[in-house]
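Homework help board

Subject: predicted structure for assignment chain

Our instructor gave us this sequence and asked us to write out the predicted structure in token form, then describe one feature. I got the tokens but I'm not sure how to describe them. Can anyone check?
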Amino acid sequence: MNLSNTLETNARKFPENEAVIGMGQRLTYKSLNNKVEKLAKGFLRHGISKADKIVLFMPNVPEFIVTYFAAHRIEAIIVPINAKSTLAEIKYILENSDANAIIVHELLFNVVEHLQGDLLQVKTGAEYPGWLTFDTLQEEYLVALPSSKAKEDEPCTILYTSGTTGLPKGVLFSHRNIQTVAQMICIEMEMKPESRLLLMMPLSHSAPLHLFMMAGMIVGAAHVLTPTFTPELLLKTVQAEKTTHFFGAPVAYLLTGKDPNIEVADLSSMKWWVYGGAPLSSGEVLFVKKAFQTENLVCVYGLTEAGPSGTILLGNEHEKKAGSIGKRAALFTEIRVVNSEGEDVQVGEVGEIYLRGEGTMLGYYKNEEATQATFDGDWLKTGDLGRLDEDGYIFIVDRKKDLIISGGVNIYPKEIEDSMITHEAISEVAVVGVPHAEWGETVKAYFAANREVKPDELIGFLSDKLASYKIPKLFEQLEALPRNASGKILKQSLRESGVLNGA
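My token output:
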């Protein structure tokens, strides 16, 4: 079975069940499948067919899901991109992916209205010169449309990495890859046809798209979409739609937990509160559990190249192991923590996290060198450094590429960042290594704060929290740290800035 077959099957099994809810639309599985079929015919009518690349530039709206499955219906390859992408970033992806079409939602059209190129350009909403409208593309086309015959191992999706250390890379997935990780979530998170999934995190990212949207499609659940996230909108939508599953970044929980309306909100329908992208500390876990009145707060760890799949820290494990990513790999996945000799680490030792499973990517699109560098046999090298505790739980220490070696000593920026962020005035921080004539590298901290904070104050603040060799020798206060469209801090830009400034 391929991804398109999944929707077709549920349109027959659950024709009147709600499938997609958002932006004033409520689509049953039957009506969703009908829209998908019309759009798929429209693609064929305009010369888009098997193996062509369709770039999808939309927030979380029903048209996103319609386009996603219409591409798969004709065995094309879908390329969802971040709704915060700039025109320059979009142009790069269009060229790198060999795109044949771009489909844009009217909410984002101002970014691309002057885009020119030899490809099919489609937008939702009103007509615009040089662009075909989404509605026109769905006009009745009297031609038979067979079910997709795509094999499970055929490529179907490209997701682009965030490009924090260089140009984004296209991660190529097969139907089997995506179905594997989606089935994992179906089982691990107990999804059923009665489930109602709240999708607020961008569907251009692998976890919301592959884990939650596709998992819901497999079981025939309802998908409640919002084009953005705010704490107020989360609380309002849970109550109005009686949702059962939510996935969000830790910041979504921390911000919502501070909203005064949460004290009177009825969140009783929710069965699974899932977070990923970063661990929560023990103090943060206690805060979130109390604010959301839940014991079922679950951490998932993985990365795009793994599907994503990785590890799970269940609700009942948070009391003693908050901050960990768990001790066991998720269903269909294996995990190792490996030292520089390729051996499994011992308790307390730091090593790189390796993952293996059927959800792992086919490779980077048109980048065989990077693909080979990312694999050790059939094990995916995550680039994350982890430490095992005495119970086998894994704690992320840092990103391997962010490791600072000063005078031959390993320094982990995350440990310093975790200490600095507890300062009452600091709102964000990034620690990097910059060149030093004698020590090889020295530690520099960039931070933003709500008032001026002098280096002496920070050194004094950190002196009882970190060993002296870990305390930054250089500090630079900025109005805000540079971030990419996904919201990740651009540490490479900061490193380059440190070099240019003579640090």
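Reply (TA_rk): Your tokens look well-formed. For the description, you could write something like this. DSSP finds 16 helices and 27 strands in the chain. That's the kind of observation they're looking for.
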